[in-house]
Write a structure and sequence with these properties.
Helix content: 40-55%
Keywords: Signal
Radius of gyration: 23 Å
Number of strands: 5
Strand order of the largest sheet: 2-3-1-4-5
Strand content: 5-15%
Organism: Volvox africanus
Number of helices: 10
Largest sheet: 5 strands, parallel
Order of helices and strands: HEHEHHHEHEHHEHH
Shape: globular
Structural class: alpha/beta
Protein name: Sulfotransferase
Bound molecules: 2-acetamido-2-deoxy-beta-D-glucopyranose
Oligomer: single chain
Length: 298
């Protein structure tokens, strides 16, 4: 299976490369027709993605492993919230391409397929008249396309028929989502995450309760925070996860640690997760395949 998939991806990259060259050449000749500039709408997008956002010490590795028991799934593990950096980068681009006064002179969406010559003409017209420290011709559409391609090249590498994703326990209040702006960042990051692939589903994984006793292992990992701050942040994270799932049950699902290891609940839970992911609910997956993961409170 590896070879054809690799060939498809190579072919895609070759197509993209030669299309880019073609359009760069077209640009050099001063043409600005849509058909010559298709390559600017580079469209390398992963198809189906699943992201697991977790509070930590809440069974996210076992959950990831359960999904990875599906042959066409590859959910990668912790990444120090690497995509948070991409989100911040996206916010920086968004600001620098839309907010500075000099950017408002141009409607970059209207120029999204423009040739280099057209863009350079705009620049040369304005530069002698006005300082242009923020001259950024990227339209929002191209910034999003670049992020989607970044994701697809890195995570979606095995072609369109498999499901990619990652799990990370740093998308919580007090980590990536700065304490005093947690809701704002959470509410911005989720739509961003959803824009990465054609179809995105998110699993929010925590302990059932946001109490200290239920999350002692997590608290023990970093005692630099006071108990009070820890609980405040954890409570807010739970509340954000809960309310997001309540309003977005089509693409968001809540998974509690305790249910994963409760023999009275875990079979139903496995089936519900598979159904939520549009997979055959009869597929045998289990949460306790990893060593020691069948000892819940170890
Ligand atoms: C910018 O250009 C796009 C595409 O031509 C157009 O749809 C949009 O209305 C324009 N926006 C403004 C503010 O003029
Ligand atoms: C967070 O704390 C408030 C106030 O103590 C409580 O009412 C709420 O149930 C808690 N939320 C969660 C998700 O634990
Ligand atoms: C549920 O828990 C029981 C007991 O630990 C275990 O034998 C079974 O494999 C688990 N089922 C799933 C779907 O993980």
């Amino acid at each position: 299976m590896r070879k054809p998939v690799f060939t498809i991806l190579s072919a895609t990259l070759v197509l993209v490369t030669s299309a880019t060259e073609a359009s760069l050449q077209a640009g050099q000749h001063g043409r600005n027709q849509r058909d010559r500039n298709d390559a600017y709408r580079l469209n390398l997008v992963a198809d189906r993605c699943v992201f697991i956002l977790a509070t930590g010490q809440s069974g996210s590795t076992a959950l990831m492993d359960a999904l990875n028991q599906l042959p066409h799934y590859l959910i990668r593990g912790e990444q120090w919230a690497a995509f948070w950096n991409i989100y911040e980068s996206y916010l920086n681009f968004k600001w620098t391409t839309t907010e500075p006064q000099s950017q408002l002179k141009f409607n970059w969406t209207a120029y999204q397929d423009a040739s280099l010559e057209t863009i350079k003409n705009l620049y040369n017209q304005e530069a002698p008249r006005e300082k242009l420290p923020w001259f950024n011709e990227f339209p929002q559409e191209r910034i999003i396309a670049a992020i989607r391609s970044y994701y697809a090249v890195l995570y979606g590498y095995y072609g369109q028929s498999f499901v990619s994703g990652f799990k990370d326990s740093r998308y919580v209040c007090g980590r990536s989502f700065t304490t005093d702006r947690c809701a704002e960042f959470f509410n911005g990051f989720l739509p961003f995450l959803r824009s990465l692939c054609n179809k995105v589903k998110v699993l929010f994984n925590t302990r059932t309760s946001a109490s200290l006793s239920a999350n002692m292992k997590l608290y023990d990992m970093d005692r630099s925070r006071s108990e009070e701050d820890f609980l405040k942040e954890l409570n807010e994270t739970h509340a954000l996860y809960d309310s997001y799932v309540a309003g977005n049950s089509d693409h968001a699902f809540r998974v509690f640690y305790e249910d994963m290891f409760d023999p009275a609940k875990n079979t139903t839970l496995a089936m519900e997760i598979l159904e939520f992911l549009d997979e055959d609910p009869a597929t045998p997956i289990r949460f306790n395949r990893m060593p020691d993961s069948n000892k819940p409170d170890s």
